[in-house]
Amino acid sequence: MNGKQSIYNLNREDLLKWAKANSISSFYALKIWENLYRNKFRSFSDMSDLKTDIIKLLDANFYFNTLEIKEVQKSNDSTIKFLFKLEDDSLIETVLMEHKFGKSVCVTTQIGCNIGCNFCASGLKPKMRDLKVCEIVSQVLNVQKYLDENLKEQITHIVVMGIGEPFDNYNNLMKFLSIINDDRALAIGSRHITVSTSGLTPQILEFARENIRANLALSLHAPNNELRSKLMRINKVYPIETIFEALQEYIKITNKRVTFEYIMIKNFNDTLQNAKELADLIEPIKKFAYVNLIPYNPVFEVEYERSTDETIKNFFDFLSKHKIRCVMRREHGSDIDAACGQLRSRYIK
Ligand code: SAH
Ligand code: SF4
Q1: Atom 8 (ligand 1): residue with closest C-alpha?
Q2: Host H or E run for residue 189
Q3: Could you state, in chain order, the average pLDDT of each consecutive group of 10 residues for the chain (349 residues)?
């Protein structure tokens, strides 16, 4: 692109800085910003409220990166999964989910994932690269475009739970959040944004000090180090006690609750003894904890199986009896390739 960068890499502060350096008033810079995110223009020449010399300058410096829709899968529960092709032909997944409270979009942050959890389709292949800010932003814009054209509804929530470890692409993640959260852009409130991590503790502590107070979810999946290390090799670097220390600090700083994701794998982490260990682990931060029990979504290449409904219900009852706030998460799109990275993994061998 002749050294140009995508305009969607910039947050409002960046754009204002660029405008100032090019003697464009903040009045016009804000017009550009709103043309991008409110009026959703996809070319500078459509921005008829700008002077031609500003349009020329924008064209000389920036372009609009595109995502090509390679496949759209619709499930019976109205989950829609998009497979997008990036400009370098890499494939990423973005999922649109319907809830009683609105519509959420699950975005991808990396091409592949280096954390290498052995139950996850995304972790089976090494990370190729981090996504650029514009590539994360474009997922949301493209899904919103699809909604505008088909259902005329707004995205209300964002979950950063697609392919990749968001805290391994931290700066781009935070810039993305600043764009979608901006009240003159998509204005998605921080309480409607959730970032899920495998437990990179330095970034948990950094996240606690950010101005944007998005929600944090931790992929715990096991109540002790022995089991967790079998699933997630990152647990050898950041074991459970280190993560919980960081979470205590996170809670102290933010006063926000933490969601614990726990995938239920048959005969692996689903006994009542495991439920007891989990309850004991969470006890000290119980007021701030919320457990999501997720039925494991079988991945073709992996031998784990999902726990039975009865086992999940017993596990849930045990936690509830011990006053741990807990939900059995409804699966989204279980009839399509819904598990993280599954649709993409059909295309890459
Ligand atoms: N890398 C981050 C965010 C992306 S994964 C993280 O691990 O938290 C989003 C969630 O999907 C994680 O909780 C992950 O453990 C879970 N997940 C991955 N594969 C799954 C599968 N096959 N079935 C159910 N949940 C899965
Ligand atoms: Fe990466 Fe998350 Fe999958 Fe683990 S579960 S491999 S951290 S995407």
Answers
A1: 197
A2: none
A3: 89 98 97 96 96 97 96 87 95 91 94 92 86 98 93 91 96 98 96 97 98 97 98 97 98 97 97 98 97 89 90 98 91 56 49
